[in-house]
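Reopening this one. Same input as before:
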Amino acid sequence: MTRRLPAAVLPALLLLWVGLSAGWPGPRWRVAERGLEDQLQRLLGPRRPPAAVTLVAVDDATLQQGDWYERNRQLPAWARGVGSLPWPRAAYGLLIERLLAAGARAVAVNVVFEGPSSRGPADDAALAAVLARHRGRVALAAEMQEGEDQQGAGSLTLVTPSDQLLAASGGPAQLGLTNILVPRPGDRLLHPEAYAGALLRDRKVNDTPPALSTTVLRLAGWPPRGDDRESALRTYGAEGSLERLSAWEVLDPERWAHHPRRSALAGGVALVGPVVSEGSAGYGTSFGSLSGLEMLGTATANSLQGDGLLSWPAQPPQRALLAVVPLLLALAAGRRLSAIQARLGFVALLLALQLAAGLLVLQQGNRWLPLLAPLSGLVGLALLYGGEAYLREAGERLRLRRTFERYVAPGVVAEILADPEAAEGILRGRQLEVTVLMSDIRGFTTLTRQRSKAGQSELHVRQLNEYLGAMVEVVGQHGGTIDKFIGDAVMAVFGSPLSRGAREEARQAVRCGLAMRAALAALNADWRRRGLAELDNGVGLASGPVVAGQIGSPKRLEFTVIGDTVNLAARLEAMTRQVEAPLVFDTATAVLLAGDAELRPASLGSREVKGIGPVELFGVEAAAPGQG
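Same output, byte for byte:
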């Protein structure tokens, strides 16, 4: 139960984290979410704004044009005072006149005409006359100023145009607020109506104008198509994306009479305001900073088309629930898919589908799904799957290593584990061509009985272990695999689990048998010095097919080889006593040694082998009977 705990707890914690991040994000998470939102909006690219919204900018070009006329003393009536800000109010009146004459349904001026004009009563009168002639078609700007009184309490002051201009335009119904909520890090740039129609209402501030964008659309006869109080601005691109005219082009009668964009005003709304080097210090959006006039145009266009940006679902619990759905799908699939490739493939598919759904809903529905949390959760789940697979593979490799290290040299183990699937195949069983070596101590049973009676069992076991340790080292040096110990007998296999080729395995097996005899001679010399009984052994080898694999019960498995070749090697080891040769091998081994200048087979004659029949025996010329 303890081993399964992480597999259940970690996904549960991941689900909880995704739900909380999507429904109740912290400040840093909101910043990251807005960053992703901006990236996707840039990926979708600029959008086409409605042709019914036109900006008329009092821009650098207009000021430069007016300044040029003044310096050259060729000042037409329309250019008086337009070379610097603030503009004459009469110039705004002339601009309004020409825009409405071109067919605009309504005009909004993004300038608060507070108090009397600094240029005198005539300036106010000129603008008032225009407003009176087009009463109900011009929206004027108002501003809510926030401050503190002497006691430190917050105060709100509504700044409106002068009484003369307000009366001429048709009264307070023509006003619109220019205020906008400045977003905090991680927040969106909200529609101006979020300030005028939501924030002020929440503060119990009544009888305040709506946003200027809302007023101009109402004057044009177009109600907003969405709830602007809840939506954020969704821009159409960088500064200058909306249809824009430079104010001097409208004021200059000759240029305006033949202007190619004049017809675009017919049936639409025009928004007038200063745009003087504001683009780099305006309102931050996905496509960069927007000037106040561009922001007003974007708000007006969003209201007209109903394409302001909203979060969906709106409530935190629903957003949290929607965010965890992809993870639940991935976890459900993970229970059915055991292969790491299949699990990661399904997670990758969900990532792609989630991102595609977010882009589609953003582009077509102007809704922002909770994306960052589920995408991050899926990536986290992929890491969990990868970590689980890594630990499982590491455990499996450790199991295989421990299994094979009992039988083969470390270098062979590393080669086997380079392909874990092949290693599993080795354990399951397969047929191999090998050379089997059997070695047994002659007369060991009698020696065991004598020492047991003499109370020398501990000495006997210690000497046997010295012998077996030396034999194991020799087998390892020649690339053989210790298959098992049968009492004092040693069984080694050459060619399992990996083979260097049948000929090479046979050569190494014979060399190993000779080396075992040499090692025993060195042991005997040491035992003589220590006053211990000397030992003698015989080595039998047989080459041929065997079945190799893990054999035994579920509680005890051993990697071993079985077959007639094993039985023959055991019989040949026993024949070493009859032919008085330390090392005996069969015809198959002799054939594999053919042509070897060092190991030349020598026939020892044919003998009847129990359970097999007549078998021709061979030895090595270098190890003739009586040697070793």
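So the earlier flakiness isn't reproducible anymore. For the record, DSSP finds 21 helices and 19 strands in the chain.
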